[in-house]
Amino acid sequence: MLGRSSREKEKEKSNAPAGENPEAIKPPAGWYADPDAANSDGTRARWWDGEQWTETVSPGHTAEAPQPAQDAAAQPDSGPAAAAVPDRPAAAATGHWIQPPPPSQLRIMRIQEGPQAGETTIGDAGVILNTVRRVAQDSRVYVPASVVDVAQHRGLTIGAVSVRGLGHQDFGLVRQDAVAFATAGNSRFIVGTIADGVSEAPNSHAGADSASKAALASVREFLDAGTRLHEIPWPEVTETVRNNLRKRAELAFGAKLRNEKVDDGTWARQVGTTAEVLIVDSEPAHDGSFEYVRAVLAGDGYGYVISPAGLLPLGSGKARDNDLKSNKVLPLPSDPGPGYPHVQPGRIRPGEAVMITTDGIGDDMADGTTEVAGYMHAELLQPRTPHSLLETVSYVAYQSDDDRTVLVVWA
Amino acid sequence: MADKVYTATFLPVFLVVDTSWSMGEEQPGSTERLIDVANQLVPMIVEKCGQHPTLDQKLRLSLIQFSSEASVAIPLGETDSFRSSIPQLQPQDATDFGAAFELLYTEINDAVPSLKGGRDDYGVYRPTVFFITDGEDNGDPGRRDRAWAALTDAGFRFRPHFFTFGVAEASSKQLEQYKSGRGLVAVAKDPAKAIDGLSDVLGSLVRSIVSSSVGADPTGNIELTRDDFDPNIWEVLD
User: Fold this and answer.
1) pTM
2) What angle do CA B206, B210, B211 make, to 5 degrees?
3) Rounded CA separation A314/A10 (Å)
4) Could you tell me the CATH number of the domain that includes residue A399?
5) What is the ipTM of this complex?
6) Do A327 and B54 touch (CB under 8 A)?
7) Best of A127, A134, A311, A357 to mutate (most B CBs within 10 Å, chain B)
């Protein structure tokens, strides 16, 4: 944090984002290129609260001047026209607006027979259609294969769904994803969390459950105490989640490991999980938009903004290994490593939605150009009922066998 | 944050089996031959794939036989392409590791990237090789060493995880160097129990392939560790 120093005074003298006169119509709140002289290379962003510059900076956050979606405008054939998303602060977008395949180009069919009869298949699903739903044998406690929840809150709609992947059904394993949501900050904010237990950890379903709830509780505590949306100390949230995971693992497995040297790696091999948070402010800005913050505490989840004009991928933490596939994640409670927590602010407008999802769907949607991306975009443009949301995420596609979890907020 | 993702990823596994004359000899106390046991391997994997479609959709299998020469018995592909006519290996000639390593390099280099079918959104896991032999290499040591160096060179994009299993006359001294990546060398201690040893290791091998797919978000790593081997039967070098 900077003090109110000569640097602050310098900022006060400086113009509002994009050279707007602060006394004239001011740009909406958002992350913009830091006008501070120390940011001469333009790699740092500073939060503009709609009225003035704040103390909150985001090192390494690629910020741009607030103007219509710059990436989209630069690629008119691959994204929504700039006019379709007026005044969008481009700072929020780390990716490019994508026009996913329209429904008319999707190979969608209702499965007529076999163990997946009644579900929707996207493209040529192949032998995965023959997967049998086997009873989960790997857990002493019952873990529901599917959970779904939809609720309205102050003009926003929240959808949460988590389903057991076909791979887990095939091998009799429980669902290892988790999802949770609640309101916070005197009901002003919607807070949702998702977690994806890593498959190598035999009790990662317990880890994912713990992480999603601990992250939710921690963020709620900060917001309830009056912490501003952009001042949530995400490293502290991560630490709370890690501590909870350690306790959960010690409670369940500590006795077994009494004589072993126990560290975070030991616990991660038992309950390792990713964790991600989405917060949406239900108080609309003066332009009617709703502010959100996505925070990836650890792992390889995906985020997207869904708009009638297109799909904005918010990125993933999926690792690569010299072009060979790698599913490396550093699961909590291990230190997730540099780059985490990864915090992305942004805005959605009425008619848009923001979603976070585990890689069971994220790998299928990928960069937004796939058939599954087109399908999900079409399906999630409007708020869904619980049963239709469950049906939406139960599609069958080639090699798509991981657990699937979505937390979506529609404006 | 990396953005490159794959909508499908394949797990290439190469089974490289010694088919020299000794594999066709009846073992002490048994009417069974090592080649008969080795011939059970592919059907065992195919059976597992039939039971688990999510494994079947990812696994891509190849069978390479070698004696004085090496040849591809099953080209790298999905089990559906050979399920109805699994080739039976026949014993012949001597044992030349160099021939096996050379062909393996060529097959990995050509067949593994071709699994992507030209699609940017298809990926491959690092290949895994299971090398099974019952005896001493009779080939040209220079050729063998050059081929092994090429196969395991850090600059080889698809250098495999290499597991070696030795039974009968194979010794740990001869085989100890033939491991790479997450691989290991396991040698049966008692040459007189080669049939039991090979049967035992095939079970472990199949379980490790299945395990690599269990959990729906597999690491793509076929895990076989010292703990998977009975210390009374196996000497493990990892």
Assistant:
1) 0.81
2) 115
3) 33
4) 3.60.40.10
5) 0.87
6) no
7) A127
